[in-house]
Amino acid sequence: MRPDRPDHELLTYCSLTVQGRPTFVFNHNLLHTPRSPGMSYRIPSTSSLQSTEGIGQHAISDESQRQSLSPHTTSIHILDNDCLLNVFLLYRPAIFDGDEDENVRTLGGRVWNRERWWYKLAQVCRRWRDLILRSPSYLDLCLVCTFGTPIVDMLAHSPPLPLVIDYSDKYWDISAEEEEGIIFALEKRDRVRRVRLQIPVPDMQMLVMAMDEEYPVLEHLIMVPSTEDKSTALTLPETLQAPHLRHLTLKGFVLPRGCRLLTTAVNIATLCLFMDHPSAYFPPNTLLRWISFILQLETLMVAFSFPVPNRDVERPPTRTPITTHVAFPNLRLFVFRGVNAYLEALVRRISAPRLEKLGIQFSKQLTFSVPRLLQFMNTTENLRFDSADLEFSRDEVHVKLHPREEAETYPLSIVVGCWPYQFCVKFLPLPILVGISLGTSACISSL
Questions:
Q1: How distant, in Å, are the alpha carbons of 70, 412, 419, 441 from that of 400?
Q2: Is residue 230 predicted with pLDDT exceeding 50?
């Protein structure tokens, strides 16, 4: 049985009948909340709300109720529309927290159903409902399509607000009715703002094929299969475009040669590509060509879960190679998993002076050569260390470098897949420790 979700609240607000006149207590400091100078919004005129003003004008008509109120409290219904909008805006929860770990940020943050914050406010009274619905841009209103949402009915009885499509509970499968509803929502291309799908591979492929045109307001696109099926590679439509995309996370997808998504979404801040199938492999030159258009990158993650022979990495590119240097002034997080030859080919053409965290996981290899990585790290301003931890397990070595010995976080993490311990010690890329953090003290532990 699925968890209880208040998805039917929105279907009833249009025909809401107020049975009482609730009284609210508020802080007078909320009246003077400054507006953001860059925000524009529309406040309903007093005349347009005259028919509903009576709901709040006499909210405290009973003398006993009036006496029960403290001299420092007042009914919220005395607020004008401008003040009410400021109260609503302060009530709006943060959709994206700032304290998520890397894995949570990769998946676009936590639950997106926080976008329902205004549903109950719209049911308080007709005045509030009219005010909220007349200020969708200022309040940044959205409709949420998720498990249990009757999408077709909701869209038929709701204003044309931006859509948030979130089916990311990996423990629940989607039904045929839900699949039909998701396709129906995806067809509203000029309204889809965020999409997060974490569903089985067969369902994912069917829904992806429906995304074959331009999505002009799409900001987040996160598609991660909930089931492991490395025998099947998903394919992204060549015609899919999202010029305002800011966050892209794909796992198990093949990016066709003529894919327009990465060449048109030049404002991406977070790019996460996880390849599970050999057919999804793309050479370093192709990746460089894609990201050379995305100069505002803040997070870059590239991971191959299958072995890539060095000869494939070092093979001359079939198209014109990228020979110019690409600088990413805003890149803060860079994560790579694969063979060191691929990473070497990548970092030799890029720089990230403000990089704050670097995570590397090398596949099992007998030898490592990382001169380009050392040069890349030396050009950064923040990757400086004075202590290191080495952790040995059965099949890998984990190196963590800290800016100071008592620091709990580590800006550099290197995991090396290996065979028995003697190979781990012999072939561990210790030049990174020597070349980057002179004077580093190492703490060696065994897991």
A1: 58, 6, 20, 12
A2: yes
